[in-house]
Amino acid sequence: MEGFEVAGRRFRTQADYRAALRDKAKIDEIKTKVNMEQPGEVITLYAEMEAGKYRFETAVGNDFDDEIYEMAQEYKRQGYHKDSRLPAGKKKASKKRGKAAKQTSGKNVAGKSKTSVKNGAKDNGNAKVSLEAYDKDMQKEILRELKKREKRRKLTVILCSVVAVVCFGYFGVYSYFSDRTQMDYENLAQLKGNTTLAAGTPTGVTIHYTEEEEIELKVLEEYQTLYSKNKSLIGWLKIDDTNIDYPVMQTANNEYYLDHNYSQEYDKNGSLFLDKDCDVVHRNTNLIIYGHHMKSGKMFGNLNRYSSKDYCESHPTIQFDTIYEKGTYEVMYVFRSRIYNEDEVVFKYYKFFDAASEKEFNSNMQEMAELSLYDTGVTASYGDELLTLSTCDNSEEDGRFVVVAKRVL
Fold this sequence. Notes:
Elements: E1 4-6, E2 9-11, H1 14-33, H2 39-50, H3 59-77, H4 97-104, E3 122-123, E4 126-127, H5 136-191, E5 204-208, E6 214-218, H6 224-229, E7 233-238, E8 245-249, E9 272-274, E10 286-290, H7 309-314, E11 317-322, E12 328-338, H8 358-371, E13 386-393, E14 399-407
Parallel strand pairs: 8-9, 10-13
Antiparallel strand pairs: 1-2, 3-4, 5-6, 7-8, 7-11, 9-10, 11-12, 12-14, 13-14
Helix pairs in contact: 1-3, 2-3, 3-5
């Protein structure tokens, strides 16, 4: 059905016609509240429309939206802002500003200064076309597209700002945890060997393996203070002339100390920890210690320096004390590996805790020797005690960097 017309727009259905009437009524109401001759009020109205305060349903509303956009942009170009007001004597002169602005605003489809088609002016060989060169409908489409571009630009600026804030926030948090970790472990290193705070604290440990087996152990004097503060302490790892000088923790799972420090606070650096399946009393063939590969160098962040044979030759030994006894290890193998699927039949260093026989031990040694990046000249025999340090490696998905050492003292 045809013949429904509102504000120069024709509508086919009664539903569209009624929607257009609603838009028209809304526009009339706005015009009673806003003085279109005052730049500040027009600019404020445009900001409210852009924020979604007024929503329209039909082309009638879109036309009004375009009109307000054009007026607000022209006022802004003239230097007005939302608080601007024209003196009473100048209202008359600005009454026909809308039409005059279209003739003099100087804007083309690219949003640059407009030059009339009639004068044939060119810029770098490209003719500029005035907005008035197009018919009314095309002008509205051009203005609508310019509005979309402006909104996209603002959205892009906002998104970039949010990303920047998030990035700086992440960097700040990362730096905070890194600095805090450094200070915490420097303090812990000072506590190592300090028995003053442990005075009066029981130093004996009773371990119940079974109802029949009960073992009485004594914590080494230099670790008594640290052990009294956190019973999850199982030892201390140190490599001379490096930043690796940390307590080693152990719990019933391999998750807690991924993101907690010695003080049991949340910490992105986590802690060095001994695999839950390792036993420092009923000594396993191989003890495995894990640590994060932090970009700051904390934890095992510098462990991959052992990929260089020269570095290994200048740092050949590792000191790992359990809380019950001291231990010195000599680097034997250095290799890269990864975490495999359960059904993959392949050597998995992280599953090697005990060798049930000499044949099994030698087989594991051969696997690691073949993976090793270089020959250290150090070998092991069945019955030797091993120490494995493991951290993440970005050379492949689920990659790991591994250093294996043999106990020599």
